[in-house]
């Protein structure tokens, strides 16, 4: 198919941005996979989509690259990631604008997503000089025992639409300094941001000068492409971000071949508001955590437990915040809540609100918005739902801006309700009572991978390990010692004596 132009301002803007980023016209306009913007619902570009066969070829190429890259000293590998960080800094506003167009995030969140990519590059550059092993005490005289960390192989990265580039960067920056190559299957809903990121990475590789071909390859397409990564034994690690249903579908197949996995799956995150909480602070934190990114973050606040003594006051303030929040085109400065990703997302939101009403919930908001201006797009007013109790629908993750609010009477009850769901990703407590805060963070407190005090559950800093428990998958990415998931550990024993003492006093003289 010949390169062609697409009608519409947003399509033209998209193509202009991609051209400025240096993406060749045929890569963004010809291909089987259509990209759409949730802002208007219109088509904005087309990319090549591969199938299982071309994914296998990509894996072979990445596997060959790994054999070279694993022998490059880690600090030198860090230099490539440093150059990539520079490319991201230069292209920050363009890539962020593309995130806004393709994922519907407001401008500050689009910029924030690219900043997260830059931050993880900085982190990984430092890490490239700190991939420490251990020296261990050995029971045998004249021996030394140590632990070393080696590159693992090809890392397959499957990502979701709502963090179209940052999640890949969390994985890629760390995987690369750890000596791995990468094959990335981005969401089929956000192929252009992936294409732009691939171009920026290629530019860093060109400046680096001596990286093997195929060090990081993007394979575009749907589940079958992700499935090819899952099935291939050359892909030693699969890091998969998306719904719990996706994780559940691929986990047994990966377990079958004993693949290393990092699962970053859904969340049904809660916050507890205690009697001593600063309500001014809590309202701001709750508003952002529940409505930001139109409720389409894995860490979005979805359940709120409020002590009965502050319930009426807090609910009045939340009603005001939910009613006032500006829903609109995310490219406009005044907008705080952009569109849902597509019609399916809006349908799921409507069905959840119907279920909540049937279960006795009282709903404020939740209506479709801007249908006149953008008939092919799906905007919704965030919904605040007063629930009589934690019913079945409250226990599900609906990937839309719905906040269910429930009263609690004593702290133990709040803890029980907070942990009473299948997911275990993120959580927070608003309190000025030191005992409540500490109990929330203790072994008998929140069962989530992320537990915060006096800040909302949504978002994360790259310095901490990110991930959740139970149906949230159990994986950890980004900071702390998450890098260990991208390397293989070897225990080495060296005998520098003339004797051969066996462990545990075993005698075996021949
Ligand atoms: P999704 O599960 O529909 O898709 C995610 C990715 O998995 C896509 O690339 C998709 O093509 C691929 N995929 C889906 N089924 C597959 C299969 N059977 N085999 C191989 N690949 C498959 O998720 P989504 O709608 O893009 O994202 C929203 C979900 O992701 C929410 O549940 C959200 O909570 C979760 N999420 C989690 C995190 C986290 O870090 N924990 C971060 C972002 C999003």
Written account of the structure:
It is globular and about 80 Å long. The chain is built from 15 helices and 23 strands. The protein has a seven-stranded mixed sheet, with helices on both faces. Helix 11 (279-291) links the parallel strand 10 and strand 11 (301-307). By secondary structure, the protein is an alpha/beta fold. Residues 158-163, 167, 185, 187-188, 222-223, 226-227, 230, 241-243, 246, 249-250, 264-267, 298, 397, 399, 425, 472 line the site of nicotinamide-adenine-dinucleotide (NAD).
How is this structure best summarized?
With 510 residues, the chain is an alpha/beta fold.
Features:
single chain; 510 residues; alpha/beta; five-stranded parallel beta sheet; 20% strand; disordered N terminus
Bound molecules: nicotinamide-adenine-dinucleotide
Estimate the global geometry from the Cα principal axes.
Answer: globular
**Total E-strand runs:** 23
Structural class: alpha/beta
Strand content: 15-25%
Low-confidence stretches: 1-5
Distance between the termini: 75 Å
Q: Give the proportion of residues in helices.
A: 25-40%
The number of helices is 15
What layout of secondary structure does this protein have?
Blueprint: H1 9-20, H2 25-29, E1 33-36, E2 43-47, H3 52-69, H4 74-90, H5 92-103, H6 107-127, E3 134-136, E4 143-151, E5 154-158, H7 166-177, E6 181-185, H8 191-208, E7 216-218, H9 223-231, E8 235-241, H10 244-256, E9 260-264, E10 269-273, H11 279-291, E11 301-307, H12 311-324, H13 343-358, E12 362-364, E13 368-369, E14 379-380, E15 383-386, E16 402-408, H14 411-419, E17 423-424, E18 426-430, H15 434-441, E19 450-453, E20 465-466, E21 469-470, E22 477-478, E23 487-495
Parallel strand pairs: 5-6, 5-8, 6-7, 8-9, 10-11, 10-18, 11-16, 15-16, 18-19
Antiparallel strand pairs: 1-2, 3-4, 4-23, 12-15, 13-14, 17-21, 20-22
Helix pairs in contact: 1-5, 3-9, 4-6, 4-8, 5-6, 5-8, 6-7, 11-12
Bound molecules: nicotinamide-adenine-dinucleotide.
Nicotinamide-adenine-dinucleotide (NAD) binds at residues 158-163, 167, 185, 187-188, 222-223, 226-227, 230, 241-243, 246, 249-250, 264-267, 298, 397, 399, 425, 472.
């Amino acid at each position: 198919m010949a390169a062609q132009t697409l009608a519409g301002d947003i399509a033209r803007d998209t193509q202009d941005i991609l051209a400025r980023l240096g993406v060749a016209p045929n890569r963004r306009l010809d291909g089987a996979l259509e990209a759409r913007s949730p802002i208007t619902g219109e088509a904005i570009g087309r990319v090549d989509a591969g199938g299982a066969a071309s994914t296998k070829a990509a894996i072979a190429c990445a596997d060959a690259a790994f054999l070279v890259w694993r022998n490059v000293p880690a600090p030198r590998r860090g230099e490539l990631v440093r150059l990539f960080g520079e490319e991201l800094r230069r292209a920050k506003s363009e890539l962020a604008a593309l995130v806004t167009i393709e994922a519907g995030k407001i401008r500050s969140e689009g910029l924030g997503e690219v900043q997260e990519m830059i931050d993880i590059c900085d982190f990984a550059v430092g890490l490239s000089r700190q991939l420490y092993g251990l020296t261990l005490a050995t029971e045998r005289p004249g021996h030394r025992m140590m632990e070393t960390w080696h590159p693992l192989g090809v890392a397959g990265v499957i990502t979701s639409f709502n963090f179209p580039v940052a999640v890949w960067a969390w994985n890629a920056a760390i995987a690369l300094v750890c000596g791995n190559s990468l094959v990335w299957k981005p969401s089929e809903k956000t192929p252009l941001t992936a294409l732009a990121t691939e171009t920026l990475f290629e530019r860093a590789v060109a400046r680096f000068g001596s990286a093997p071909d195929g060090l990081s390859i993007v394979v575009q397409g749907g589940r079958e492409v992700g499935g090819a990564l899952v099935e291939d034994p050359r892909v030693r690690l699969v890091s998969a971000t998306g719904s719990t249903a996706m994780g559940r579908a691929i986990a047994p197949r990966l377990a079958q071949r004993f693949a290393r996995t990092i699962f970053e799956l859904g969340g049904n995150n809660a916050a507890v508001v205690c009697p001593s909480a600063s309500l001014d602070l809590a309202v701001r934190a709750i508003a952002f955590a529940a409505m930001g990114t139109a409720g389409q973050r894995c860490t979005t606040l979805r359940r709120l437990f409020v002590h009965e003594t502050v319930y009426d006051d807090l609910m009045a303030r939340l009603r005001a915040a939910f009613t006032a929040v500006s829903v609109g085109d995310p490219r406009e400065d005044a907008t705080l809540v952009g569109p849902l990703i597509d019609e399916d997302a809006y349908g799921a939101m409507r069905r959840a609100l119907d279920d909540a009403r049937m279960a006795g919930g009282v709903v404020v908001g939740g209506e479709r918005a801007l249908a006149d201006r953008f008939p092919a797009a799906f905007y919704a007013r965030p919904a605040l739902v007063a629930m009589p109790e934690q019913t079945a629908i409250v226990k599900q993750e609906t990937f839309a801006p719905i906040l269910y609010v429930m009263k609690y009477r004593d702290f133990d009850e709040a803890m029980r309700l907070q942990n009473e769901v299948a997911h275990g990703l993120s959580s927070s407590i608003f309190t000025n009572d030191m005992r409540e805060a500490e109990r929330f963070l203790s072994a008998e407190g929140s069962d989530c991978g992320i537990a915060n005090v006096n800040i909302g559950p949504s978002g994360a800093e790259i310095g901490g390990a990110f991930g959740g428990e139970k149906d949230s998958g159990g994986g950890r990415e980004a900071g702390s010692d998450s890098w260990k998931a991208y390397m293989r550990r070897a225990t080495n024993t060296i005998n520098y004596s003339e004797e051969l003492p066996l462990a545990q006093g075993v005698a075996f003289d021949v």
